[in-house]
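Researcher: Next sequence.
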Amino acid sequence: MEVVISVVAVALLLGLSCGCPFPAIYNFGDSNSNTGSASAAFGRFPPPYGETFFGRPSGRYSDGRLIIDFIADELKLPFLSAYLDAIESNFRHGANFAASGSTTAKSPDFKDRLPRAEEFSKALYVLDIGQNDLSYGLGTTTEEQVKESIPNIISQFAKAIEKLYGEGARVFWIHNTGPVGCFPFFVIDYPPKPENADSTGCIKSYNDVAQEFNKHLKDRISQLRAHLHGLVGPFINCCGHFGDYHVICGKTVAVNGTKIFGASCGEPTKHISWDGVHYSEAANQCVANRILDGSHSDPPVPITKACL
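Model: Next structure:
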């Protein structure tokens, strides 16, 4: 089965498809997507939390709904119940493992504790985490130290995805981090020097750290997409052979007195290159999908709407 991994937020946004009837959502994250774990563990939030939509505190660090709530609503699924909140919780359509203060260092462990295991491979897995790693580091160490820690943070993140994949997850929706240098907490309590403030007054160097994090995350996700999909290296073609001897796809040559035919590798779906020059069907399909949905176009218009 193809592994679908999308990076959203400030770097890349891929549209949801009405052809994906996900039966459940499993969310992993921090307080940005926490729908009740913190209140279940430490007591209900006080007013005015929740005033805009729920009319009362709802276990969310917001006046109303979170991004994960809008995603669930768009997919025609109920709001996710926090796993730690056992009171009136419904895990039939997934669960929310997000917890306040979470970082990438804690890998998810969930499969044996939830019902409907047969739907794990059909569910949507949302990961919204990484902000705390950066915010805590920026508040306790230097910016350079935080930048140096990013590869390790991303490595932990990748291990979590691989663990979920090993448990049966196949479709991932991954959020990167936002402009931490624009948080009022930082800007007001630790105002930047004039030369370190951008045109909106945000802390430029902090946002540079966030962008560095997002770049590393996007690169690693691209690697994971190929790895989990079972693709071999980009310089290994399926048909024919290059290197110590040269055989064109579909041709026969003599190598040290032995006739060698340029045959197919037998698993073209795992290759980007078909014959060393042309793409495999799997690679063509991957590119075509992004042409069709507009995500690789400028402007990002789906081909079905090109005439509008």
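Model: The CA atoms of residues 292 and 303 lie 5 Å apart. The two ends are 34 Å apart (CA to CA).
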